[in-house]
Structure formats: structure tokens, C-alpha cells
Design a protein that fits this description.
By secondary structure, the protein is of the alpha/beta class. It folds into two domains: 191 residues, 3-Layer(aba) Sandwich (Rossmann fold), CATH 3.40.50; 195 residues, Phosphoglycerate kinase, N-terminal domain (Rossmann fold). Helices cover 37% and strands 16% of the residues. A six-stranded parallel beta sheet has the order 5-6-4-1-7-8, with helices on both faces. A six-stranded parallel beta sheet has the order 11-10-9-15-16-17, with helices on both faces. Strand 9, helix 9 and strand 10 form a beta-alpha-beta unit. Helix 12 runs parallel beside helix 13. The protein is elongated. The model has no long low-confidence stretch (mean pLDDT 93).
């Protein structure tokens, strides 16, 4: 049983304020569809079909960036996925927004303007401060309930995430519910067999923290990406340095001591790449064994085929596999071998599996795999890291507080 309430606990005929995370890539002013729309569409459709009057909040980009745009396009994309009309008002909590909210009938869905276009939203403040903001105090009285479905933003202390639960009875949407349950499984569940974590991506600092936090839980770590090279560097190989990139040296300086300590204490549990892939002189994929590398002269863009072959039996022998980050630049088909090979090995097993970390999950659909072959595919980045390391998620804590407050009267 969850520590917070879900849509199963929501009374009928409610005026519901819902927080989603529809933050998306923007190219030439056009908002690109992504998996967040399809996932959140399930919550939106369920609320609309139940006859609630639904107003949605979401953010897009940050002030000063090219991705900081209106949510007008988001309404159309979301409507297509949800199979219901989604109206849009270019206002967050002013007169136009309030009028549109009051005009909602049963089953109507309205998307409010980008929450980050109000000054009250972005400052990282305590929930009580946010609850007293004009944004929250103006909008909250228009609703009977608040639903937070934005698990991927749950690590933020922003007004739309932590202010409203202090003003309204609060519930978790379906994305919040499923993400929380799957991503905390590594800490909350007991597995009889081996637990394996695949560690990759570009942000080595994040995953090194995960490796430390999960020392008692994870039996084996399979490394690739930037973290893989940095650990190879600690093991004495001439890699993990910046050549045509700026990913390695700063992260090495910040984490060298920790990387060396992890490697020394857990060397038998940390599997490092035995070969790496790079772009050959003819523009093709080329591979080299790490033992044969004398100096790093070009960027390595993937783990090699031998490494994939080394990792596959480890995965097949696992009861649970958690993925954090890609093992190579999978967006380029030439360098998708590592990420796809490992994901396919996971999909072929009956293990409990969670795939998360930024864009890694995109590789599943990009290369013809099915999300149904994995226990859970996360759309979260920062919140996924926090869940794995056991750090608190403020927005989740507020949902728990709301449930406890109501149950105690």
C-alpha cells in the first residue's frame, strides 16, 4: 500500500488541479512529441472519463533559454494522446485563467500556461513559503483536490509541486504512482538472486553516487559511457581523458578519490569494458581492446562487442537489473551496439527490470524493442537518481504529508 493516496482514493465529481511534466525538446520553435505526453495522457484521460473538471499545470524550459515557450502546442499533442479535447488558456493564475477554470464542465480538460512564466514558481523554497505565494493562494480555492503526476520533477521544491499539497487534499497520478513504486523497488524489495546495475551516461558524478549508495544492495555493476572510461582510467588505462569532448577531465578531478576507492573496495563486483568503439578513418565503426590502447587519440563512442558479450551472461544470471544511463552514443546507429545489446539481453530474461536515466529509455522504441519486455521504463532523470540513492523527493513527501494530515483529521 502506498504511503500517499492515488486516483483510486479520489472522490467523484471533483474540481481537480493536476501537475504534469510535459517538458520537451523544442526545435525551431516546434515542441517535439515524446514519451511524457503518452504516459501523462493516461492520467488525464482517466480523470476526464470519470467526469472530473480538470485543470492542468506543467512547465517548459527555463527563462532565457530557447526551450522556454508557451504550452499552447503541448495542449494539442496531449489531446492527441489522451483522446480528449484539451483547451488552453495563455494565463497561469490571472483573471483569464480563473474564468476558464470556472467555466469547466464535467469531463472538460484545460491546460494553463507554463508555470515558469510566473515569478512564484521557480525559487527553491520551503513548502510553507510556496503555499503562501500569490500563485498558490489565488488558484487553490478554485479546486477540491490536487493531483501530482510529475514524478520526474519531484526532486524540485517549486510552487506547483510543493505549495498546493498544503492547501488541498492531494493524490498521486498514475505516472507518479508507477514511477515511485518501480524506482524505490531497489531499496524496498528483497531479491533472492543477484541484483545488477548497468551504469552509463554522460553524468558520471551522478552514477558514482548511486554506486556508493547501493553498495549493500547491488551485486554487480556493468560500466560504460563516461563512467566506464573514468573507471578504466583509475585502473591504469590511458582513457577517460578529454579528446574532442569536455566530459571527462572535470568529472575526473571531482571524483578521482571516490572512483579509486570504489574500484579498490569492490573490484570483483565492478565489470569494466574490455574494448571500446570509435569512428574509423572511413567513417565506420571500429573497435579496440583496452589492453591495446597506448594513448587516447580520438573519442570513444560506445563499449565494444566483446564487452557486450561479457555483460550478457551476467544479466541473464540476474533476478533484478536496474539501468542508469546509456553505454554509448546510441542515437548514432553505429554506436548503439552496447546500449541495445544490453537492453535486448534484459528484455530476453524474466528478471525484474527498471530502465531509467535521461534519454536512455528512448533506445527501446528507437531500435524496435517493446516497453512491455521491461518491468518499468522510467521517464525520470534527476528524480530517478534520488530514488536510487535514497535521497528525499520533496513532492512525494508532500503527498505523504497530505495523506497523513487528512487521516489524522
Amino acid at each position: 500500500m502506498s504511503a500517499f493516496r492515488t486516483l483510486d482514493d479520489l472522490p467523484p465529481d471533483q474540481r481537480v488541479l493536476v501537475r504534469l511534466d510535459l517538458n520537451s525538446p523544442v526545435e525551431d520553435g516546434v515542441v517535439r512529441d515524446n514519451r511524457r505526453f503518452s504516459r501523462h495522457a493516461e492520467t488525464v484521460a482517466e480523470l476526464a472519463e470519470a467526469g472530473h473538471r480538470v485543470a492542468l499545470m506543467a512547465h517548459q524550459g527555463r527563462p532565457g533559454r530557447d526551450t522556454f515557450v508557451s504550452l499552447a502546442q503541448h495542449a494539442d499533442v496531449l489531446a492527441e494522446h489522451a483522446g480528449v479535447d484539451v483547451d488552453f488558456v495563455a494565463d497561469t493564475f490571472g483573471d483569464d485563467a480563473l474564468e476558464a477554470v470556472r467555466d469547466l464542465d464535467a469531463g472538460d480538460v484545460l491546460l494553463l500556461e507554463n508555470t515558469r512564466m510566473t515569478d512564484d514558481e521557480l525559487p527553491e523554497r520551503e513548502p510553507e513559503e510556496h503555499a503562501a505565494s500569490d500563485f498558490v493562494e489565488t488558484l487553490a480555492p478554485e479546486f477540491d483536490a490536487y493531483v501530482n503526476d510529475a514524478y520526474s520533477a519531484a526532486h524540485r521544491k517549486h510552487a506547483s509541486l510543493v505549495g498546493f499539497p498544503l492547501r488541498l487534499p492531494s493524490y498521486a497520478g498514475r505516472v507518479m504512482q508507477t514511477e515511485y513504486e518501480a524506482n524505490t523497488a531497489i531499496a524496498d524489495r528483497e531479491f533472492d538472486g543477484n541484483v545488477t546495475m548497468v551504469v552509463g551516461g554522460a553524468k558520471a558524478t551522478d552514477v558514482i553516487g548511486v554506486m556508493e549508495a547501493l553498495d549493500e544492495t547491488v551485486d554487480r555493476f556493468l560500466l560504460g559511457g563516461v563512467a566506464g572510461e573514468l573507471f578504466l582510467r583509475a585502473a591504469g588505462y590511458p582513457v577517460g581523458e578529454d579528446v574532442e569532448t569536455d566530459l571527462f577531465d572535470d568529472q575526473w578531478d571531482a571524483n578521482e578519490e571516490t572512483i579509486r576507492a570504489v574500484l579498490e573496495e569492490r573490484r570483483d563486483r565492478v565489470l569494466l569494458p574490455s574494448d571500446l568503439a570509435f569512428e574509423g578513418d572511413e567513417g565506420d565503426r571500429a573497435e579496440v581492446a583496452v589492453d591495446d590502447i597506448e594513448t587516447k587519440e580520438r573519442a570513444f563512442l560506445d563499449i565494444g562487442s566483446d564487452t557486450v558479450a561479457d555483460y550478457e551472461p551476467v544479466i541473464r544470471d540476474s533476478e533484478a537489473v536496474f539501468v542508469k544511463g546509456a553505454l554509448g552514443v546510441f542515437e548514432d546507429e553505429r554506436f548503439s551496439v552496447g546500449t541495445v545489446g544490453v537492453l535486448e539481453a534484459i528484455a530476453d530474461t524474466d528478471c525484474f527490470s527498471v530502465v531509467g536515466g535521461g534519454d536512455t529509455s528512448r533506445a527501446i522504441t528507437m531500435y524496435g524493442m517493446s516497453e512491455g519486455d521491461f518491468s518499468h521504463v522510467s521517464i525520470a532523470g534527476g528524480a530517478y537518481i534520488r530514488a536510487l540513492t535514497g535521497e528525499p523527493l520533496p513532492a512525494v513527501e508532500l503527498l505523504v504529508r497530505s495523506a497523513e494530515a487528512d487521516s489524522s483529521g
